[in-house]
Amino acid sequence: MNNFTISVPASSANIGPGFDSLGLALDLYLTLTVSENDAWKIYQQSLLLPACNNYTDHFIYQIAQHTATQYGKELPTCCLTIDSSIPLARGLGSSASAIIAGIELANQCCQLHLSKEEKLQLATEQEGHPDNVGAALFGGLVITNYNEDTSVDIYRIDQLNIDMIIFIPQDELKTEAARNVLPDTYSRAHAAQASSIGNVFIAALMNEDYPMAGKMMEKDIFHEPYRAELIPNYAPIKQKANELGAYGTVISGAGPTMISFFPKGTGTQNKQKLQAAFPSYNIQQRKMDSTGLRVEKK
Ligand SMILES: Nc1ncnc2c1ncn2[C@@H]1O[C@H](COP(=O)(O)OP(=O)(O)OP(=O)(O)O)[C@@H](O)[C@H]1O
Ligand SMILES: N[C@@H](CCO)C(=O)O
């Protein structure tokens, strides 16, 4: 086995009305440097990574082991050096990136020769929905459909002429907790209204009509109204971004990070103003990652 590096981007799911369906890859990365070794060793270089004393408890190892077993293979012992700029449990797809990294680790180490579509299917089965894993794997903005009885259908937009700003608060919010506040069912009228918002949103994005896309993203009724109370400064962040000319501001994934979409060229100046307005936040201007999962052999 040659040494190699796996790199997987962060992602922002939903973008308002695309609950469990839309994902946007962002230029923050989880990286694994892998070499064959006579015993398992995992070195973690970033303070953003969760502490782990035993390799068998490591989420990425568990996903790799599970994938190898699914294909009747044995994972060779490896030395992993893991680094990350993706904050955990903030709505930036950290678990999806870890799942993709684990699947790719097994793919490389066990020579599974998995196609991207097969990786997407495996990752979606692990995560439960294809939005974050689709973006992390393919890069760009992905539009997906999945239910437990079918394979994942996916389209991709790889060009967005907008600037993006993310607002990362200090405290975590676990996806599970943010899913627990959602209704189990929606009435027909509610579902029809919610999906019509999503339909116009995608049409607006495809036509680069960003004012309309911003209007639609803020009209979501699938998840935003239920989660707003869990998100610190939900209304003030939207209001301030709106005053500064944002097309729209929504919860990133399950939160608590929020993401604003600004006219191209206005991100840098607005980032400074927003950081001054919300000093306890880690506010960053980010770009879309257009590549997704990368493997570099040494
Ligand atoms: N690099 C990693 N290594 C090990 N475990 C990880 C890693 N990244 C994420 N995890 C696990 O996933 C959990 C976070 O997943 P969760 O679904 O709550 O949030 P998220 O994926 O960051 O956000 P969202 O799904 O809303 O975008 C962490 O608490 C940790 O258990
Ligand atoms: N679509 C998911 C993303 C987070 O995993 C949600 O909003 O719960």
From TrEMBL:
PROSITE patterns, A to Z: GHMP_KINASES_ATP (PS00627)
GO biological process: threonine biosynthetic process
Cellular component GO terms held in the UniProt record: cytoplasm
GO terms of molecular function: ATP binding; homoserine kinase activity
Record-linked Gene3D superfamilies: 3.30.230.10, GHMP kinase, C-terminal domain
Residues that, per the record, bind ATP: P87, L88, A89, R90, G91, L92, G93, S94, S95, A96, S97
Functional description taken from the UniProt entry: Catalyzes the ATP-dependent phosphorylation of L-homoserine to L-homoserine phosphate.
NCBIfam families, alphabetized: thrB
Protein name: Homoserine kinase
Organism: Virgibacillus chiguensis
Gene it is expressed from: thrB
